# Entry
Amino acid sequence: MKKRHGHYCRICGSIKPNEAFSGKGHRNHICKVCSKLPRSEIDSIDQKDEIFNFLSQSHISKKNISRLHSLIESPDEEVAKLAGIVLDVAMVKPYKKKRLKFLAREHRDLLEKLDETGLIVAHHL
# Structure
């Protein structure tokens, strides 16, 4: 008997069977349950994932910084807050190598913000 592998839903983060996805859901990696969520909630989850991914990169580029500036204007307060913190980090230390040590020495407040918001976890990915 073949072992079946499911599909990953990028919104809820779970692996679900093929039947849990619609035609467009397969392409977008969104299950049927999550596709019924309000568009604003889906966008919020996507934007938070995007912000967390910026910290896991080896370098936060100028293009990423430009994107963070636009995310600061988000109507979602949490997205705007997270984008602001990551933008501050990108301005003082865009490269990942020894970033946390630098922040601990030079910008303790930023390191504490990363810790409070959970963004510090993204740094280790």
Remarks:
- Residues 39-56 form the longest helix (18 residues).
- The chain has a mean pLDDT of 89.
- The beta strands are 7-8, 15-16.
